[in-house]
Amino acid sequence: MKEKDIRLTSTEMGALWATYVNDTMARCVLSYFHHIVEDSEITSVVKYALDLSDKQIQELTKIFNAEDFPIPKGFSDEDVNVNVKRLFSDSFFLYYIKNMAKVGLVTYSMTYTMASRSDIRSFFHDTLLKTVKLDQKVTEVLQSKGLYIRPPYMPIPDGIDFVENKNFLSGGFFGFLDKRPLISIEIAHLFANAQTNGLGKTMLMGFNQVARSQEIRKYFSRGVDISTKHVKIFADILKDDELPVPMTWDSDVMDSTEAPFSDKLMLYHVSLLIAAGTGNYGIATAASPRRDVAANYIRLAAEIASYAEDGAKMLIEHGWLEEPPQAPDRKELMKT
């Protein structure tokens, strides 16, 4: 069969639709960054990320048109105002792009393996490679400026050991069991999740300053409190083993109260970050044998799930939540 004769699968539809919406959002955010960035090295990274979003939107539009697939509304120039005061520092742009590249790498790699049609696989393969290049560029600039934050170091093991005691799984729940030291993969996830929550807190602080709706500002303020709490929990676990914790970016929020983005875009962006955070917690739970560490992830994931649900309700109430492709309601069709 020719490629054009093979229908898109539900997986491909969903991935293409979500990528288009997310790229239109990214284009708005990055166009604002590009308009106000001052550092020449950071400008080159922002420009590369912006061009990547533009090219992907063009390629996705071609795919949709070829399939007679309704092009999502997504976000447009109506959702961004580049002619306002600076809300975040130049260095924050690097951390933001680094984090979003990480989210993209996880998403695109999974989508690539789940896609069936060769042209769709090719699209996500190319997108994955370009995102790898973006991550490399932003990492190099962070390192050259002394802004790159490395996870904690630890000694190289003297040899190979095997677990001899079931206390390896214990988190000291009952007081009489000592907590074993954190293993390397637990440290990695604790550090990374403290870092991403710190970035999320900074973004929520900025959004809280400029949101037009009082209701949405309260929602962002609640998100700041949740992020602060999660950072503290992860940091305290690291500190218990005398390990360093990531820095915060609170000082990278300027004093502007002029909104560069629409309330719709900011609320959607927060929901996207929550979805990525939920995925991070799920992976970290599976990778953490120590029960207390895993239990924290499960408990905190439930908290952000509740927060995400409230955000989704607000998007629906304002008529901002665009409906993804969904299966036909067979029961309703049979009735009619």
Automatic annotation (TrEMBL):
Matches recorded under InterPro entries: DUF3231, Ferritin-like
Pfam families named among the record's database cross-references: DUF3231
Source domain of life: Bacteria
Gene3D superfamilies tied to this protein: 1.20.1260.10
Name of protein: DUF3231 family protein
Organism: Paenibacillus solisilvae
